[in-house]
Design goal:
CATH class of the largest domain: Mainly Beta
CATH superfamily of the largest domain: Macroglobulin (MG2) domain
Number of domains: 3
Shape: globular
Number of helices: 20
CATH topology of the largest domain: Immunoglobulin-like
Helix content: 25-40%
Strand content: 25-35%
CATH architecture of the largest domain: Sandwich
Largest sheet: 6 strands, antiparallel
Distance between the termini: 42 Å
Oligomer: single chain
Number of strands: 26
């Protein structure tokens, strides 16, 4: 089994003052204006200096405009701005230049396009006007000013607010009413018209720039919210949460290289009635390395399913070695990549976690999704799958493929996005637990809505879909303009009362086409295959439902004679029900066929010990040690067998060897002391 234990966030944070000096300086001085609240939250949950160093490396990698180059231009520019601020600002008061208002604006926005300085002794206080061109995508006006002045004519330049300060605060020894903005503005116009132009508004061309009677909050929002948030809009912070969650599972070289992704996860029952989790993972990029004329990427995929209490129900690991030639790389280099797979899962509510590592580029991505697998007999509607294309693609006998149902391959996007060239939407879902009466009299209502307004609806009787639980319906998108829509499906009884409802959102883009990925799809055994029965039986064992596990594990064992792994899983389930003799009978043929299998020998030792044949148990345990090497559990079991047989000398040898491996075994140490007395 794959040893995968997801590292959850620490229950609490430490205070910045409790950080080591260099990490405290980085957080509170170097990155203070550009670190997002989410990043800061994660940083304060990290427990070691190693983790904090990895975070800082990842922090800058997320801001690197050219990840493939040797230098990080964004990091270099940031520290240049800090040095400039410390050198040129803050000279007229105590404290470093980065702490001043000018230093903060300079570090966040960089050097202004233009600076105008007004220092008219006795008329207006020293004032500087910085002019910037803004990016609306970052929440900034196309053009704006930032004004600084020396309050009361002394100290450092401070940030000027048209609303909080007003024109009167710029006039030296102003004796008028500070709340009379119009009078103060007229006075400032007479003294210095250029300063007056920015005293009412920092945004050129706005109404309040010339009208003292019209007071807008736009300028205050610019300096209090829009400008400080500029650094936050340049970075996706998902990497920080992922680093916190997976920091104990990924090697050091991966830690700073998180790649975001989109994912689609759906539960579908196959023809045998077994529920499978189908998933598609689309990383934002797939790095391909070149060696001579070959191109490659090697993906390690680890998955884990846990229940509501955090107990592991199922784990798996896949390896995906990908190799390409130059022509293939040219075809896929500008396209997304989708990794698709599936696995069976017994009913229940779960958390599904997936970790994908590219061992060539040392990058990783991950996803976490909630899963619900209903019981097969309850009336349920499965999840809605919205596909932009379907293909006739029957699976090979005895196999399954992700998103392949009834010989139809559903081609769906994790984003549920459609382009103007996608003239059809294909809807697939399943209805479970239909009684014969409802199947013959019930119906389905399909409704497409935009902004809660119905734009399309249709009704269909259930019996037109035949006996299968599979429902496949299509919708014409040609008349729908680009927008976000919801698709609602309701299962109705004979009186058209809704019994079950589901809803899924989709988006029609303005673009003529949207990016579609190239796909690597893994095949899996069908629900009727013994391998599937073995997986499901193992999941029931993890859920401590051995009664439901045994028939499945027996089916796997009988369906695949000669498979030692299946036989061991079945025997272990029998062991849990104290059916020791039956478990020994299951494994007896394998002892002759594979007498040197350490795992088999160790388990047979446990069986013999439980059945009271301690001498035979010791024989199996020692044979297991010869094959597998020193093992604490086996050494302790040998010691226990010898102790019960009255052979304290041999028990002492086994237990002392165990303590050499792990001295912190208090119970074993106590037994050793007892024997020596």
């Amino acid at each position: 089994m794959l040893a995968l234990a997801v590292s959850l966030a620490a229950a609490g944070q430490i205070s910045p003052k409790d950080l080591p000096a260099r990490h405290r300086a980085w957080l509170q001085e170097e990155a203070v204006y550009i670190i997002t609240p989410k990043e800061k939250d994660v940083f304060l949950q990290l427990q070691t200096d190693r983790e904090r160093d990895l975070f800082i490396e990842a922090f800058w990698k997320q801001r690197d405009p050219t990840p493939g180059s040797a230098e990080n231009e964004s990091k270099i520019e940031h520290y240049k701005r800090i040095d400039y601020a410390n050198h040129y600002f803050g000279r007229e008061a105590t404290g470093a230049g980065w702490r001043t208002d000018m230093g903060r604006i300079y570090i966040v926005l960089g050097p202004p396009q233009d600076i105008e300085t007004y220092d008219m002794q006795g008329t207006i206080y020293a004032t500087q006007v910085w002019t910037y061109s803004g990016d609306p995508a970052l929440g900034l006006p196309p053009s704006f000013n930032v004004v600084f002045f020396k309050r009361n004519g002394v100290g450092n330049y401070v940030l000027y607010s048209p609303v909080k300060d007003g024109p009167g605060s710029l006039i030296a020894a102003y004796t008028g009413d500070p709340t009379d903005v119009a009078s103060a503005y007229r006075r400032l116009v007479a003294l210095e018209p250029n300063v007056a132009m920015v005293s009412l508004s920092l945004i050129p061309g706005s109404r309040d720039q010339y009208d003292p009677t019209f007071r807008s909050l736009a300028s205050d929002l610019l300096i209090s919210a829009s400008i400080p948030s500029v650094p936050f809009k340049k970075v996706e912070t998902a990497y920080a949460e992922k680093l916190l969650r997976y920091k104990d599972l990924i090697e050091v070289e991966y830690s700073a290289n998180y790649i975001d992704n989109d994912a689609l996860v759906k539960v579908i029952r196959d023809a045998s009635g077994v529920a499978f989790v189908h998933y598609s993972l689309e990383p934002r990029r797939l790095s391909i390395e070149q060696y001579e004329s070959k191109f490659s990427a090697d993906l390690d995929v680890s998955g884990m399913v846990t229940d509501a209490g955090g107990k592991t129900i199922y784990q798996f690991k896949r390896t995906l070695p990908l190799e390409f030639n130059a022509d293939q790389v040219e075809k896929i280099k500008s396209r997304l990549f989708s990794s698709q797979d599936m696995f069976p899962l017994v009913e229940g509510s779960y958390k599904f976690s997936l970790l994908m590592k590219n061992t060539v580029s040392k990058e990783f991505t991950s996803m976490e999704k909630d899963l619900f697998v209903p019981g097969p007999r309850s009336l349920q509607m499965g999840p809605l799958i919205l596909a932009y294309r379907t293909l006739k693609s029957p699976a090979a006998p005895g196999t399954n493929k992700p998103f392949l149902v009834g010989g139809v391959q559903l081609v769906a996007s994790p984003r549920n996005d459609f382009s103007r060239s996608d003239d059809r939407l294909y809807l697939f879902f399943q209805v479970y637990g239909l009684e014969p009466g409802l199947r013959s009299t019930g119906s389905l209502r399909f409704t497409i809505q935009k902004d809660d307004q119905t734009v399309d609806t249709k009704m269909k009787r259930l019996d037109v879909y035949g006996e299968a639980p599979d429902i496949l319906e299509e919708f014409d998108l040609r008349e729908l303009p680009p927008a976000t829509y919801s698709l609602k499906v309701a299962l109705l009884d004979d009186a058209e009362r809704p019994l079950v409802e589901k809803e899924e959102f989709f988006f029609i883009s303005h673009a003529a086409a949207v990016p579609r990925p190239w796909v690597v799809s893994q095949t899996s055994p069908a629900g009727s295959d013994p391998a599937c029965a073995n997986v499901l039986g193992g999941q029931y064992v993890q859920k401590q439902d051995v009664g439901r596990a045994l028939p499945l594990l027996e089916k796997a064992h009988l369906g695949r004679p000669g498979n030692l792994a299946f036989a061991l899983d079945y025997a272990r389930a029998l062991f849990l029900q104290a059916r020791y003799q039956q478990a020994r009978d299951v494994l007896a043929p394998y002892l002759q066929a594979k007498p040197d299998n350490g795992e088999l020998l160790g388990f047979l030792g446990s069986l013999e010990q439980q059945m009271g044949d301690l001498e035979q148990a010791i024989v199996h345990y020692k044979a297991s040690l010869e094959q597998q090497g020193a093992n604490l559990k086996t050494l302790n079991a040998i010691g226990e067998c010898y102790y019960k047989l009255g052979n304290n000398a041999e028990a002492l040898i086994a237990w002392e060897r165990s303590l050499e491996i792990d001295p912190k075994q208090e119970e074993i140490a106590k037994l050793v002391r007892t024997i020596k007395k």
